[in-house]
Amino acid sequence: MSINNFREDELTKEVIKRTTIKRLFKYMLAYKKVVGIVLSIMLVIITVTIVNPLFMEIAIDQYIANANYTGLFFIAGIALSINLLAMILSKIRIRLMAEVTNKILVQIRQELYEHIQKLSFNFFDKRPAGKILARVIGDVNALKDLLTNSVVTLIPDFITLIAVLTVMLIKNYRLAFAALAMLPFLVIGMWLIQIKAHKRWQVEKAKKSNINAFTYENFSGIKVVQSFSAEAQTSGSFRELLKEHRNAFFSAIYLNNLFWPMVELSWGIGTALVFIFGIAYIQTDTITVGLLVAFITYIGLFWQPIMNLSNFYNQLITNLAGAERIFEIMDIEPDIMDQIESPMMPEIEGRVEFDHVTFSYDDNTTILDDVSFTIEPGQTIALVGPTGGGKTTIVSLISRFYDIKQGSIRIDGHNTKYVNIESLRRQMGIMTQDTFLFTGTINDNIRYGRLDASDEDIIEAATAVHAHEFISKLEKGYETTVNEGGSELSVGQRQLIAFARTLLS
User: Fold this and answer.
1) For 381-430, what is the HEC assignment?
2) Contact, 17 vs 44, CB < 8 A?
3) Cα(284)–Cα(493) distance, rounded to whole angstroms?
């Protein structure tokens, strides 16, 4: 399905969430030593967190109750020392995990970029550049907190939950059950919310992608917009897209915002139940005041990880849609690929044969129907015909930018479908109708035709197409910087630079 329109939402195919999560976290394996160090640090921090209420219980029941201020200061000193150590370790943990996360993001973005470069023209024909850019930049960035918190939140907080729950059950199982009374209802509620929330975040990602596509397209054609005084119209379209994105975002965030009230309500009810039962137990001398104070602290230590895990789960639902969009692109197989052990194309002499070639960009419209012709080496030809007649298509097929439906294309007797693509294309020079210059110097743009060319080769190519004269008159000559598209140069000058690049290739 064509999605070459900023008004059409990209459809993300349904993928089992577990599959996406496993695939995403496989990137962690390359940094397992650093992650192991981070987890070790987290275990120390967790231990300090868990023993703090025990210090409080001892201080109240043994030292404050007996007016033993020497012992009180001693235990306070120990608590202060280990908490200071935990704070230092926490800073180290944050720095280490940030380094790992950023390296993984760079790796994912690089892999995605390199994969997209291998995809055929058919992929780019169906997608606005802005939508592709949204996946390379926005969707990858969205994974940062998810990757970081998977280590610093998911595993440590899960361990904290188990440890705190164990201590609570050992201290007083009745108060523990009272504190956890609302936990089953919380789990059910979160599960019901995530079912709808994930789908809504998929829609939000698609709407954001539409904005990127429109913005890129509009600013790329800003000269046309201003020439026809269409600013009001494009502003209206942009406003409409923003409204759609805002509505999609609000629809998703409303569900996400239900997480926190549910956790806090469960936390509050659990705490109230512990107070109610705890005071009753104190009156019957079943527990001490110090134990009740410690237990109330443990309730906070128990529900805070749940709050953190809820936040992580929230991020997972929010950003998993971005990971799905990334892997969806990475799973697309290039339409144009080398056959297994494709031979290298020998040095081209120039005989081109189209043998009963039929081609269409889709299954509906045939562009070339049973076309046959032969071009001899050294022969200069011109293809003449109406717009849409297939002239540009023929050039694209010679370079194997697309595969034909029927027939064969041979160069010097070699079927282009079965030779190494790179060895074929590097022997061709193509001058397109739309001359495109990259950001950089004129020198860089001409050298793009052959990256190992010397400065003398570049000047020779520019001289041959009569570009050397105007380039030499520029203030910095071949080192003159041009921006994307070369808008500060005339159309003719851009064409000459593109001619020189083609000739150099």
Assistant:
1) CCCCCCCCCCHHHHHHHHCCCCCCCEEEEEECCEEHHHCCHHHHHCCCCC
2) no
3) 95
Closest CA to 488 of 502, 501, 475, 499: 475
Distant-in-sequence, close-in-space partners of 90: CB < 8 Å, separation ≥ 6: 41, 45
How confident is the prediction for the chain on average, in pLDDT? 80
Torsional sign, CA 33, 37, 42, 44: positive
- In this predicted structure, what is the pLDDT of residue 283? 67
Straight-line distance from the first to the last Cα atom of the chain, in angstroms, rounded to the nearest whole number:
35
In angstroms, what CA-CA distances link 477 with 459, 467, 505? 11, 11, 21
SS3 of residue 434 by DSSP = coil
What is the DSSP code (8-state) at residue 64? I
- Locate 156 and state its tokens: 């440590």
Determine which helix (DSSP H) or strand (DSSP E) holds 355, and give its type and residue range: strand 352-359
357 strand-pairing partners: 371
Inter-residue contact 356 to 406 (CB < 8 Å) = yes
Average pLDDT over residues 354-383: 86
Taking only the tens place, the pLDDT of each residue in 166-204 is 877 887 777 777 777 777 777 777 777 777 777 787 788
**Contact call for residues 414 and 474 (beta carbons, < 8 A):** no
Output the pTM of the full model: 0.64
Alpha carbons within 13 A on the beta-carbon side of 13 = 9
pLDDT above 70: residue 285: no
- Residue pair 101/148 in contact (Cβ under 8 Å)? The answer is yes
Distance separating alpha carbons of residues 256 and 264, to the nearest angstrom: 14
Q: What is the pLDDT of residue 2?
A: 44
Domain 17-330, architecture per CATH? Up-down Bundle (1.20)
Beta bridge partners of 350: none
Enumerate helices (H) and strands (E) in the chain, giving the number of each: 20, 6
Class of domain 352-425: alpha beta
Smallest CA-to-CA distance from 209 within 176, 255, 244 is with 244
SS3 content of the chain, % helix, strand, coil (to 5): 70, 5, 25
DSSP class per residue in 442-485: HHHHHHTT-TT--HHHHHHHHHHTT-HHHHHHSTTGGG-EE-GG
Q: What single letter denotes the amino acid at residue 348?
A: I
C-alpha distances in Å from residue 389, one per residue of 203, 277, 362, 369: 39, 85, 15, 11
Please provide residue 371's backbone torsions phi and psi, each rounded to the nearest 5 degrees: -95, 130
* Of 379, 374, 380, 448, residue with least CA distance to 413: 374
Domain ranges of the chain: 17-330, 352-425, 440-504
Strand-pair partners of 359: 368
Token pair of 426, please?
Answer: 């590097």
